[in-house]
Amino acid sequence: MSEVSLKQSGVRWLWLALLVFLADIGIKLFVMDNMGYGWANRIEVLPFFNFLYVHNYGAAFSFLSDQSGWQRWLFTGIAFAVTGMLTYWMSKLPATDKWNNIAYAIIIGGAVGNVFDRVVHGFVVDYLDFYWGTYHWPAFNLADMGICIGAAMIILDGFRKKDESQ
Q1: Among 36, 63, 89, 113, which has the minimal tally of Cβ within 10 Å of its Cβ?
Q2: Is 163 in the active site?
């Protein structure tokens, strides 16, 4: 990566991280204030989708949610490290590299959204429940979507760069 001035770097895309963060927190606060907790209070939207207010004490797909609480700080630390790393990378990328800057920004917004929940509430608020028949995908939220979409964009960029070099 060549050196770019901070004004012309990818940090100009951090507004998108802020947008993802604010939308995520806004939706979570709305869910917490307006929905009853748990399965019995779900809102059936489509034959394969519910709104549902649940707490996630772990990471993606409730990974380590059954632990004593140490995982809260582990995932918070990981999120801060990833946010710092991606922000640094954005500072080295030109603002014109839209694909990577968007990917990094939405990951940052999602990571900070879930960190906010962990620090303020002690858990992450999840509210999107997709299912087929009796199989339910683990509930998730907008922050999780940002992280997953951003990660997928990074992976796809690896294939795109490979194809362009051949």
Answers
A1: 36
A2: no
**Residue type at position 65:** S
DSSP letter assigned to residue 2: -
pLDDT tens string for the chain (166 positions)? 456 787 899 999 999 999 999 999 999 999 999 999 999 999 999 999 999 999 998 766 566 666 666 777 888 899 999 999 999 999 999 999 999 999 999 999 999 999 999 999 999 999 999 999 999 999 999 999 999 999 999 999 988 765 555 4
Catalytic residue among 24, 97, 117, 144: 144
Contact (Cβ atoms closer than 8 angstroms) between residue 112 and residue 14: no
Active-site hit among 24, 97, 117, 126 = 126
Does residue 157 have an active-site annotation? no
Helix (H, G, I), strand (E, B) or coil at 110: helix
What does pTM read for this prediction?
A: 0.88
Q: Is there a contact between 89 and 81 (Cβ–Cβ < 8 Å)?
A: no
